[in-house]
Amino acid sequence: MSATIWGALTFLLLRTDVPALNLPKLDPADYFAPAELDRMLQFRTVTLWFWIASTLIELGVLALLAWRGRRVASLVRCVLRLPRSARVRCGVAVAACCLFAVWFTALPVGMVRHWWYRRYGLTEQGYGAWVVDRALELLVATVVVVLAVGLAVYLAARFGRHWWLVGSAAIVVLGALIVLAQPLVIEPLFNRFAPISDRNLAAQIETLGKRLGVGVESVDVSDASRRTTMANASVTGIGSTRHIVLHDTLLDGRFTEEEILWVSAHELAHVARGHVWKGVAWFALFAIPGLAAIAWITERRGGVRDPAVIPLALLCTFALSVFTLPAQNSVLRHYEREADWIALRVTNDPASQISTQLRFARTALADPDPPAWALIVLGSHPTTMQRIEMAKAVEGS
Fold first, then answer.
1. Whether the Cβ atoms of residue 260 and residue 246 lie closer than 8 Å to each other
2. How far apart, in whole angstroms, are the C-alpha atoms of residue 301 and residue 322?
3. How far apart are CA 236 and CA 268, in angstroms?
4. Contacts of 167 (CB under 8 A, 6+ apart)
5. Percent of the chain scoring above 90 in pLDDT
6. C-alpha distances in angstroms, 142 versus 99, 257, 284, 310, 348?
7. Which contacts of 218-221 are long-range, i.e. CB under 8 A and separated by 24 or more positions?
8. Predicted TM-score of the model (pTM)
9. How far apart are CA 288 and CA 291, in angstroms?
10. CA 70 to CA 236: how far, in whole Å?
11. CB 58 within 8 Å of CB 318
12. CB–CB of 113/50 below 8 Å?
């Protein structure tokens, strides 16, 4: 019965407005010079190894901590002078220690990765500022994980092995609250925002929003150039707090006004089709069976009511997130494709879609046509060539 409901919800969430299209098969060599393709391949091949290295390090550290879980919990109790009855406080402290250990051991790989991005001109951020950003990310992650772990320990102590049934609803609510807090609390930690100075461009973007049925309270610019040379945009907030944010790297002269409008239409399309809230629904669909699996595994070691088992719970959570990455990215690509289609319809400008994708690929050194396995595992967006093929199909219709 549960599998049937899960399948029905999956079917409903995967429905989009994208029709069946006769997509042409395009060759990247027709759009990029051989030197450009070589540079993109060299850059992305090494960044892939950075991802593999950091993932293995995090799994390895969590596995070690899970193996020595009782020793870790004992040290935490000793240092903080906690009684054995202080399960929740000890559990969240153990979780925080695990996050710091993972962050610290993975930091060198991240720093080399940052050097690699600087070498290829994708960022000009200094190493000190980069470490501060990573520390802020650690702080945000720690707050979220501490809340989740504290709740799990409390529920496990109260409801026993079936704590995950109550915990599933609580975790989904926490996920929704994080979505709401993103534009109001989290984003201001990393970027500064200011109203766009080009009022004509702002008016055109607001008009696009009206055509899509999306109210836009303001069009702002973020100081993304402090961290990256890559360009992007987003729509954040809900209702009266909704505003579209253009990265200042999108407005530095490399992109035409038509390309900026296409990017804006794409981001507004995500809102028009409710992709953020569909994402929360997907989180629930993945989180509930995931939480059940974590509860089943950790019960073999005494359950998460025991702070010594928290490292194992975190290991299971991280392993499940890696294992389900292909499914997560498949959903993201599905919605990105729908946003592309809606942006093409509302702008009626496939030429700008094509030029935008070419410029994005060049500025981000994105492989325009990666191997199928790389797209399946790590691709959160359709490839550059797939997005151009959609535009070409519309252009030729």
1. yes
2. 23
3. 10
4. 151, 152, 155, 291
5. 75
6. 7, 40, 21, 14, 45
7. 218/243, 218/244, 219/195, 219/243, 219/244, 219/246, 220/193, 220/194, 220/195, 220/196, 220/244, 220/245, 220/246, 221/193, 221/194, 221/195, 221/196, 221/245, 221/246, 221/247, 221/248, 221/251
8. 0.93
9. 5
10. 43
11. yes
12. yes
The answer to whether 360 and 311 are in contact (CB under 8 A) is no
Return all residues near 347 (Cβ < 8 A) that are at least 6 apart: 208, 258, 261, 262, 265, 353
Residue-wise pLDDT tens digits, 52-78: 999 999 999 999 999 999 999 999 999
> Helix, strand, or coil here: 394?
helix
How far apart are the C-alpha atoms of 121 and 116, rounded to whole Å? 9
Go through the chain and tell me how many residues it has. Answer: 397
Q: Under a CB-based contact definition with an 8 Å cutoff, are residues 391 and 301 in contact?
A: no
143 CB-side CA count, 13 A: 12
Q: What letter represents residue 146's amino acid?
A: V
Query: Which residues make Cβ contacts (< 8 Å) with residue 52, sequence separation at least 6?
Result: none
User: Which distant-in-sequence residues (6+ apart) come within 8 Å of 223 by Cβ?
Assistant: 191, 192, 248
Task: Identify the residue whose tokens are 């501490």.
Answer: 146
Report mean pLDDT in 10-residue bins for the chain, 397 residues: 77 87 90 96 96 97 96 94 91 96 97 97 95 95 94 92 88 82 80 91 93 88 93 80 87 94 95 90 90 94 94 96 95 96 94 95 95 93 96 80
Tokens for 250, please give them: 């999108």
- Look at residue 316 and give its three-state secondary structure: helix
Q: Phi and psi (nearest 5°) for 131? A: -65, -40
Q: Tell me, what amino acid is at 169?
A: A
